[in-house]
Design a protein that fits this description.
It is a single chain. It is built from 14 helices and 21 strands. It has 453 residues and is α/β, with parallel strands linked by helices. Bound molecules: iron/sulfur cluster. Iron/sulfur cluster binds next to helix 6.
């Protein structure tokens, strides 16, 4: 039996897919590169933006046509959209399985059930916004994951936290992934040791608010700084990254201190601001002002002077005026991010913003603000990247670049620095999964180009 597994969305989804793939391989399944060659098609979905959901719907339309000639093809929708829509997804006639993110451990069983009993099946958590994920069943599934077939050689994600209960007014995550829960340090360490034994050199700890990691065991409360210290002691793990940080003072200095003191912790902080206007931040229910946010960046740079910082922004949030937007532009200029992820607001069903706020910024204004903010960020990125010219940087090599221009018969490779800069250079393909030193000769806003040293 062959499975085609397609993944949309964030790192959490990529990790879920890696875990599903590993469990299906253990159950004897092989993997296909496209739906036509597969007996089972699984789509791991994202609900964060409307666009992502529309793409899944159009895939399901295509799969319906394939199923007309191959009625035995099993189609499963898993992840956030499955949790959000539940059995409503059966309106798409191609769908046989609907499985929420907290139920992915059940996928091998669900596939077997559909094949044997020829009936549609759904596994989601009722009232997920009021409960924490079923940690026990997920934990067993999670710790068994050994990172054998990661997308990028020698790199793996490790979940530190499930869910989120911040309820930012625009965000669907608390409604599809349940309340925030931290995994035990013991489970995370055990899993990371296993990954290291399988050749993983870089792990990225994942949490929707990773800096809020907190686990009580007896008299001791572990925070992310403790976790970073414990993981630093694992032989074989050489780089540790963590995403995504939420702007908050709690444990912040401890985490920055750990980054400054522990050589294995990468000097990279992804800390979304979302807006530079206090009025919009309040409407977003973010719980901080732009001044408080900028103070956090100052603290980070005081403790870790060479830190690379990335941001996230939503433009065109309900009620965002030209003045609100210009405050966002100001914040981006002051923050001097290495890069920013900029999105146009789209209402997500069920969220507070969707229920209470009118989506009243016209699409063309959203487009214009998006474009303008990208331009501002591009100039900052260009200047920061240019500072690296002439320096030699250490990268973890990911593999051949998509363009793959050959020089002296050597392919073009891609690697990432500790500060998450992408570096492109020519070198032997067997460097994938290994560290290399690259002398940077020229730069663009998002990429460093250089020569292998
Ligand atoms: S912190 Fe806010 S934006 Fe981030 S996942 Fe939680 S609710 Fe969503």
């Amino acid at each position: 039996m062959k499975v085609f597994l397609q993944t949309f969305g964030c790192q959490m989804n990529k990790l879920d897919s890696a875990i599903v793939e590993s469990s299906l391989r253990d159950a004897g399944y092989q993997f296909a590169n496209n739906a036509k060659d597969a007996d089972v098609v699984l789509i791991n979905t994202c609900s964060v933006r409307d666009h992502a959901e529309q793409r899944v719907m159009s895939h399901l339309g295509n799969l319906k046509h394939i199923k007309e000639t191959r009625p035995d093809l099993v189609v499963g929708v898993i992840g956030c959209m499955a949790q959000r829509l539940g059995s409503e997804l059966f309106k798409q006639s191609a769908v046989d399985i609907v499985c929420g993110p907290a139920q992915i451990a059940e996928i091998p069983r669900l596939i077997a059930e559909v094949m044997q009993e020829k009936k549609k099946t759904v596994a989601v958590t009722e009232k997920i916004r009021q409960i924490s994920p079923d940690a026990q069943s997920l934990e067993r599934f999670e710790t068994e994951y050994s990172g054998d077939d990661t997308d990028i050689p020698a790199q793996a994600y490790v979940r530190a936290m499930h869910g989120c209960d911040k309820f930012c007014s625009y965000c669907v995550v608390p409604y599809v992934r349940g309340l925030e829960t931290s995994r035990s340090p013991e489970a995370i360490i055990e899993q990371t040791k296993r990954l290291a034994q399988n050749g993983i050199k870089q792990i990225t700890l994942l949490g929707q608010r990773i800096n809020a990691y907190e686990y009580k065991a007896g008299d001791k409360t572990y925070c992310l700084a403790d976790l970073l210290e414990m993981i630093s002691e694992i032989d074989g793990i050489e780089w540790i990254k963590f995403v995504t940080s939420y702007p908050s003072q709690k444990y912040y200095k401890e985490i920055m201190q750990a980054m400054a003191e522990l050589p294995k912790v990468c000097r990279y902080l992804h800390i979304p601001a979302q807006s530079g206007s206090d009025q919009i931040l309040k409407a977003m229910n973010r719980g901080y002002t732009s001044a408080e946010y900028l103070e956090l960046l100052d603290i980070a740079r005081q403790i870790v002077p060479d830190i690379a910082i990335a941001g996230d922004f939503i433009v065109g949030f309900p009620g965002e005026t030209d003045d609100d937007f210009s405050q966002t532009v100001d914040l981006v200029k002051k923050a001097r991010y290495k890069n920013s992820f900029i999105f146009k607001y789209s209402p997500r069903p069920g969220t507070i913003a969707d229920k209470r706020l009118e989506d009243n910024v016209p699409q063309e204004i959203k487009e214009r603000r998006n474009h303008e903010l990208l331009k501002v960020q591009e100039e900052i990125s260009r200047a920061l990247a240019a500072e690296v010219t002439g320096r030699t940087v250490k990268v973890l090599v990911e593999g051949p670049s998509k363009k793959s221009h050959q020089v002296d018969n050597l392919p073009q490779l891609i690697g990432r620095t500790s500060g998450d800069w992408i570096a492109v250079f020519n070198g032997p393909e067997n460097l994938a999964g290994r560290f290399a030193n690259v002398k940077i000769t020229r730069t663009t806003p998002l990429t460093l180009f250089g020569e292998l040293v």
